Amino acid sequence: MSSEALWAAVALAFLVVGVAPGLLLCARGTAIARLIGLELLGASAILAMIALSAAVNQSSYLIVPLVLAVLTATGTLVYTRLLTPEAAAAGEAGPGTDGGASGGAGGQ
Known about the structure:
This protein is mostly helical. It is built from four helices and no strands.
């Protein structure tokens, strides 16, 4: 078995083993389960693209999975922030403040 065929089989395995369950988790379940599915999809896609890059011997194709890794991490942070809107609204005032009644620059 040639090296290219082996890497193509690895990429296919990542797609079958990672993407199918990731799509199932993203489509159903609680918000946390959907977040886990999103993470699984991102990781599987990144690994499959790296394997495909190795299969065709083109290191320039590694740019796309590297950018996807950064975007996946950022997307996870945004998605997590949107999961808890009540905690975000309560934390906007900041710790140690009570809505501006504690004085400040023009306080007494």
